[in-house]
Amino acid sequence: MNGKPRQFIRDCSAVVALIWAIALPVLVGALGLGVEVGSWYLERRRLQTQCDAAALAAGHGLVSGADIETLASEAAAENGFDDAKSTLTVNNPPLSGSRTGDNDAVEVLGESSVDLAFTSVFLGQSVRVGARSVAALESDGEACVLSLDNAA
Q1: Residue 7: beta bridge partners?
Q2: Cis peptide leading into 94, omega within 30 of 0?
Q3: Reduced to 3 states, what is the DSSP secondary structure of residue 95?
Q4: Which residues contact 102 (CB under 8 A, 6 or more apart)?
Q5: Tens digit of pLDDT for each residue in 99-132?
Q6: If phi over 0 gives left and psi between -120 and 50 gives alpha, with beta otherwise, what is residue 141?
Q7: Judging by DSSP bridges, how do beta strands 86-91 and 126-136 pair with one another?
Q8: Is pTM beyond 0.90 here?
Q9: Cα–Cα distance between 150 and 152 in angstroms, integer?
Q10: To which H or E segment does residue 85 belong?
Q11: Cα angle at 40 between 50 and 123, to 5 degrees?
Q12: How far apart are CA 87 and CA 71, in angstroms?
């Protein structure tokens, strides 16, 4: 019995397998989380681009008197907006931020669902990401008109 504990302590044949058995799930989990966080960030950037385009289109619609919600939806769709997993809300005047209550500004809020692969075990089925963009009409002085027609 005296030699058995010493022999067990000196035996290193299964230590590498034990270390891999403990470390591999942690490494795979960290890799999966890194990939998924990257996809969340990418989806948020796409959504921000769509909201920016929608806000600019709606801002131009304020000048012409067109339906700003239709213009915003069309501009977002041109930039890849998907109605199936995303929502777009257009507010005139904006409901939050420094332009709250300004009738010459339009706010576009976007929210999208990102499907999970690795982290669905911990977080559930999907993650919601959001973006906000505001466009405003401003006049800061006299306007200048340039005409290329001699008769104009």
Answers
A1: none
A2: no
A3: coil
A4: 93, 94, 136
A5: 898 899 999 999 998 887 777 776 677 888 999 9
A6: left
A7: unpaired
A8: no
A9: 6
A10: none
A11: 135
A12: 15
Nearest to 67 by CA among 92, 44, 46: 92
CA distance 50 to 129: 13
Contact between 47 and 112 under an 8 Å Cβ cutoff? The reply is yes
Write the burial class of residue 134 (CB in 10 Å: 0-12 exposed, 13-18 middle, 19+ buried): buried
Confidence at residue 143, expressed as pLDDT on a 0 to 100 scale: 64
Amino acid at 113: S
Nearest C-alpha neighbor of 55 from the set 109, 103, 100:
109
- Quote the distance between the C-alpha of residue 19 and its chain's center: 38
Whether 73 and 54 have beta carbons less than 8 Å apart is answered as yes
Write out the two tokens for 62.
Answer: 């304020």
Residues 46-73 have pLDDT tens digits of 999 999 999 999 999 998 888 999 999 9
